[in-house]
Design brief:
disordered N terminus, 460 residues, eight-stranded antiparallel sheet, 2 domains, Porin
């Protein structure tokens, strides 16, 4: 698709759809009227914003934040579904605005940036041609499935009309017999001098006969919005999300609050995030069979409970609004007191190194801050101990003390359960407890168990 812009600097100067930082009372009043519109034109958007909307539409239904005088495409939030194009017969239209009230009523999304051009020229004229429409298949806003960072989501674009358009300063640029819009039609006999502020698509391409959207006549012209129930709250003004301040800032509840945040905080987690964890706790084990350094074979070490620390990296993926999947790998260290004593050999501690991997599924009741989950994993237990023999060890014919390292390698499978809460503006902090246990796959060794307190953070 080709997006074009007028030749004058005025086009390049308008790069934001946001209102001025300090809008006057008149702008605020006009914006509140604009907020009731569910079918806004987007011809006043800069070319970059329209292009971004088109690229997002190829990946799923588009979610927007629509409040006050501003609409923004939420790049990190997406609704499940896709758009299907329907070709319609060519339709042309246009209008002229001559004052600020008309500007805010007809072109609200870019009115704040067009006020200066309107004052200088005295009038702005928009002409457009529409050749078809993209509609969301079987979309029900009350059952919308969102994923990603959707804290500010208020509407889903349920459809949008495409074609070509031109916005110019001054009144209509064509006079004389029979109307013609963008050169599509007949009877235009005279054109007055105009400066082009915005333009998109090629009018000649709009007459192409094809079932698909014409390559150079598929610029978004008008949006059709569906308010999300959590954002609209049944309001008569669906453009203003419930739970936002007059300035458009979200009002958040404290984590764990019984009252669901109205701005969408109880929504799907960001779709995919890398994460890091640091954990500390305790580990315990039954008898571990390590290689005997003196008489050969294996010897039993009666393990007990000792401290452990570990570090993890992994990823988190949101499956549903309140269910996420995690995959992690990490490395742990632990120390266990032991009661080994055989043939005069003694050891006072075991040192354990545990490369590990886990997968977990976690559930957040009501898609809130608290979670509970369960998973499976495995780790390789690398155990070492220093064994010292006494000088009177007849069994090994020792004449003085000897110290040797005894080792064992075990493959453990384990289950786990965890619980905790997500903190932070984007739920990027994770604080929780984890506990689990398992047994070796390679040897007949009694149950090993562990419990840890962990702190994690996603890496955005």
């Amino acid at each position: 698709m080709l997006l074009c812009c007028g030749p004058l600097p005025a086009c390049a100067a308008s790069v934001s759809t946001a209102p001025p930082r300090n809008p006057d009372a008149g702008q605020v009043a006009r914006c509140s009227v604009r907020a009731s519109q569910e079918r806004p034109l987007v011809t006043e958007w800069p070319a970059t914003e329209r292009s971004r909307l088109e690229s997002r539409a190829a990946n799923g239904l588009i979610v927007v934040s629509y409040s006050g005088c501003e609409m923004r495409v939420l790049d990190r939030c997406q609704a499940k579904g896709h758009y299907r194009f329907t070709r319609t017969s060519l339709a042309t239209d246009g209008f002229t605005v001559s004052n600020e009230d008309e500007l805010y009523a007809r072109l609200p999304l870019g009115a704040a940036t067009l006020e200066g051009a309107l004052k200088r020229a005295g009038a702005l004229t928009l002409s457009y041609a529409v050749v078809g429409q993209y509609d969301a298949d079987d979309f029900d806003p009350s059952k919308a499935e969102l994923s990603g960072d959707c804290a500010r989501a208020s509407h889903v674009i349920s459809g949008y009309a495409v074609g070509a358009f031109k916005m110019s300063t001054g009144a209509s640029g064509e006079t004389g017999g029979g109307a013609s819009v963008l050169g599509v039609g007949a009877g235009a006999v005279h054109k007055t001098s105009q400066n082009v502020l915005r333009a998109g698509g090629d009018p000649d391409a709009c007459t192409t006969k094809s079932a698909a959207a014409p390559e150079h006549c598929s610029t978004p012209i008008q949006l059709f919005l569906a308010a999300l129930p959590s954002a609209s709250g049944g309001s008569d003004h669906p453009g203003t999300a419930q739970g936002t301040s007059s300035a458009g800032s979200p009002v958040r509840e404290a984590p764990g609050s019984d009252k669901p945040p109205a701005d969408g905080a109880r929504d799907a987690l960001p779709s995919t995030r890398f994460l890091m964890y640091a954990m500390g706790g305790a580990v315990g084990a039954g008898q571990l069979k390590l290689d005997d350094p003196f008489v050969g074979g294996t010897s039993k070490f009666d393990g007990k409970v000792g401290p452990s620390v570990s570090g993890w990296i992994g990823l988190r993926y949101a499956l549903e609004r309140n269910v996420d999947f995690q995959a992690r790998v990490g490395m742990g260290f632990a120390w266990l007191p032991s009661t080994y004593e055989r043939y005069g050999g003694k050891s006072t501690s075991l040192r354990l190194i545990t490369p590990s991997g886990e997968v977990t599924f976690r559930w957040r009741p009501g898609a809130g801050a608290f979670y509970a989950g369960a998973g499976l994993g495995g780790h390789i237990l690398l155990a070492t101990a220093e064994v010292t023999t006494s000088p009177d060890d007849i069994a090994v014919l020792a004449t003085d003390a000897h110290t040797k390292t005894t080792t064992g390698t075990f493959l453990f499978g384990h289950g786990l359960a965890d619980a905790g809460m997500l903190l932070g503006d984007r739920q990027q902090w994770d604080v929780g407890i984890r506990a689990g246990g398992g047994t070796t796959i390679t040897f007949d060794v009694p149950l090993q168990f562990w419990a840890t307190l962990g702190v994690g953070r996603t890496l955005d």
